[in-house]
Amino acid sequence: GAPNVSTATAVREQHGHDESMHPCAPPDAVVWPQAVGQVQELAALCHRCRVPMVPFGTGTGLEGGVNAVQGGVCFDLSRMDAITELSLEDFSVTVEPGVTRKALNKHLRGTGLWFPVGTVGIRGAMGLGLAALWLLGMPVGLGML
């Protein structure tokens, strides 16, 4: 519905660029799914209709990965921000894609663990942060303080 979908120019332009030098390439629409089932349904619909999908985390990437150069639908995953499981024993955490490194480290405060900036997973997905790791099905590892 309306609070979870936008075709407003300002919203589309906000989601059509990151911190790179590439010019803005806005999507045709922006959606804010709030559950895995919604992501699956939206992805299936886009696939059936041959509409490009562009995942959006925080827009801080440096490569232009959020630019919708062929239009399409931008999946803003920021509302999926739950930390669902934390294992202090094996240094792992399960998060939804909207969880930022800052939010994760706030949650970890007092445990002796932290999520560093320079991990291999995060370096490979700077523009999307934890959202990209989630979409790719990659585990999130933690470090000790």
TrEMBL record:
GO terms for cellular component: mitochondrion. Residues 1-22 are annotated as: Disordered. PROSITE patterns: FAD_PCMH (PS51387). GO terms for molecular function: D-lactate dehydrogenase (cytochrome) activity; D-lactate dehydrogenase (NAD+) activity; FAD binding. SUPFAM superfamilies: FAD-binding/transporter-associated domain-like. Its cofactor is FAD. Keywords: Membrane, Transmembrane, Transmembrane helix. Residues 23-145 form the FAD-binding PCMH-type domain. Residues 12-21 have a biased composition (Basic and acidic residues). The chain crosses the membrane at residues 111-136. One of its GO terms (biological process) is lactate catabolic process. Belongs to the FAD-binding oxidoreductase/transferase type 4 family. This is LDHD protein. The gene is Ldhd_1.
